[in-house]
Amino acid sequence: MVSGKILKDTLMETLGIEIVELEEDRVVATMPVMGATRQPFGRLHGGASVALAETVASVGTYNLIDRDHQQAVGLEINANHLRGISEGLVRAVAVPLHKGRRTMVWDIKISDDEERLICVSRCTVAIIDLK
């Protein structure tokens, strides 16, 4: 999976995002609803949900490319925030809709501890060549 050394001083570390499952056609990650992920009114910040969604899409793409010669970078993301949450743990499940040579498109669903849908997102990840 993704090593702790790579995560040090990253947004994933700051937001408490943990990759708990990584397969070719599925990525699962969790994120706590806590101070760093809440908006000023105490609810999960939509931006934190988007960061979680882009993380699972990027990690999923990274898992499928030639990591010695390519890199995965977010190209486009959209999200619909369906339910507010103030505490607990959210879980993102990402599955690829398209696995191309230059882009991958991922469908992401974020749910709460009770498996209620919090956010749905679609993320396009570009695959770029390293120089």
Q: Compute the separation of the termini in Å.
A: 24 Å
Mean pLDDT: 95
Instruction: Give the C-level CATH assignment.
Output: Alpha Beta
* Strand segment tally: 6
Order of SSEs, N→C? HHEEHEEEE
| Beta-strand percent range | over 45%
Low-confidence stretches: none
CATH architecture: Roll
Helix proportion range? 10-25%
* CATH fold-level topology: Thiol Ester Dehydrase, Chain A
Characterize the largest beta sheet: strand count, sense, and whether it forms a barrel: 6 strands, antiparallel
Radius of gyration: 14 Å
- Overall number of domains: 1
Helical region count?
3
Provide a short characterization of the protein structure:
This protein is an alpha+beta fold and 131 residues long. Helices cover 21% and strands 46% of the residues. It has a single domain (4-129), classed as Thiol Ester Dehydrase, Chain A (Roll), CATH 3.10.129.10.
Protein described:
This protein has 131 residues and is of the alpha+beta class. The chain has three helices and six strands. It has helices at residues 4-7, 11-15, 46-64; strands at residues 18-23, 26-33, 70-81, 88-99, 103-111, 117-129. It has a six-stranded antiparallel beta sheet. The chain is globular. The model has no long low-confidence stretch (mean pLDDT 95). Residues 41-119 form the Thioesterase domain.
